[in-house]
Design goal:
Arc Repressor Mutant, subunit A, flat, 5 strands, about 170 residues, about 40% helix, three-stranded mixed β-sheet, binds zinc ion, 2 domains, Dna Ligase, domain 1
């Protein structure tokens, strides 16, 4: 298991908003939960919590990470509920489910075109801007006749902290 550290924060500053959202008083326009409701999909407190956790996450959480954070707040959460909620949100194009080769898929809530830096040691994933010119560089030769639906730019290596740790190890 890659140690990615806790990425999701169910407590702290977000707790008040979370409680307000769970009580159903907040109209939360434009939120993932509102989108589910507007689309006529089931919005249980469990699904609402998952939406909140995605919105409060600062990275690319896995379903398992979301599940772990969710059970801390709501022990009745099931992993199946996490999966079905993620699939519903992905079907609504509110999130994307991406695989950056770290095992399993990750929730992508940044819908702007971008690439990823993936640390092979700690599994950290960072967004990077992608130069639109790369689209032309990566053109498929016409004779291949392949209809591109998605482009992914993933650069793998070591993040700053892992690179410095490895430097220390090599010198010892
Ligand atoms: Zn790292
Ligand atoms: Zn991303």
């Amino acid at each position: 298991m890659a140690k990615t550290g806790p990425r999701l924060h169910a407590g702290g500053a977000g707790q008040r908003e979370l409680n307000a959202a769970l009580s159903g008083r907040e109209p939360d326009h434009g939120s993932l939960a509102a989108l589910l409701r507007q689309s006529g999909l089931k919005l249980t407190p469990q699904r609402h919590l998952i939406c909140q956790l995605i919105e409060n996450s600062d990275g690319h959480p896995t379903a398992e990470e979301l599940y772990e954070s969710a059970t801390a707040v709501m022990p009745s959460m099931s992993l199946k509920t996490v999966y079905t909620t993620l699939n519903d949100l992905a079907a609504l194009n509110a999130i994307r489910l991406v695989n950056v080769g770290t095992g399993g898929f990750r929730v992508e809530s940044n819908l702007e075109p971008h690439g990823h830096l993936v640390c092979r040691m700690c599994g950290t994933i960072m967004d990077i801007p992608v130069n639109p010119a790369i689209e032309e560089e990566l053109a498929v030769p016409p004779e291949i006749e392949f209809e591109v639906e998605q482009r992914e730019v993933t650069l793998r290596g070591l993040c700053r902290s892992c690179a410095s740790k490895q430097g220390e190890g090599a010198g010892a």
